[in-house]
Amino acid sequence: LENEPNLDLSELDINVVCGTLKDFLRSLKDPLIPNAMWKAVTEAAVKSVSDEFHAAVFFLPEKNLHSLKFVITHLQKVMNIPENKMSKDNLAKILGPTVVGYSSGDPSPLEMIGETVVLAKCMGRLLELECQ
């Protein structure tokens, strides 16, 4: 995308584009929020202390931070498109598990259920960040 910054995907099926993004994010060795930093980032998100959350996010490894900024900036644009029918909260619920990831690389079904609220909260906070 760096080589084609004006790439127009508007003619593609949105479900295919979203599914491709989610597949790519799932294929990463470590989520955009690395497992080693998951607890610090998600705890800061849940506390709702902006400075602590910003510090936790901006302490991510450089590649993760740049990728996260790109994804969040894109999703913020999507949220502002009039045709978009997904609220910030819905996007956070749907994309939290893929963007934020779980506390471990191979969570049990019980862990997945238990972390759902935390993932949505963290993703919601990410969607509120200014990434410019």
SSE inventory with pairings:
Blueprint lengths: L13 H14 L7 H13 L2 H9 L3 H18 L8 H12 L9 H20 L4
Helix pairs in contact: 2-3, 2-6, 5-6
Question: What attributes does this structure have?
Answer:
globular, 132 residues, mainly alpha
Describe this structure in words.
By secondary structure, the chain is mostly helical. It is built from six helices and no strands. The protein has helices at 14-27, 35-47, 50-58, 62-79, 88-99, 109-128. Helix 2 packs antiparallel against helix 3 (50-58), helix 2 (35-47) packs across helix 6 and helix 5 (88-99) packs across helix 6. The model has no long low-confidence stretch (mean pLDDT 88).
| Class inferred from helices and paired strands | mainly alpha
The number of distinct β-strands equals 0
Q: Fraction of residues in helices?
A: 55-70%
Give the SSE order as H and E letters. HHHHHH
Number of helices: 6
Q: Radius of gyration, Cα only, in angstroms? A: 15 Å
Shape: globular
Low confidence ranges: none
How far from one another are the termini? 17 Å
Proportion of strand residues: under 5%
Task: Kindly report the average pLDDT value.
Answer: 88
Biggest sheet descriptor: none
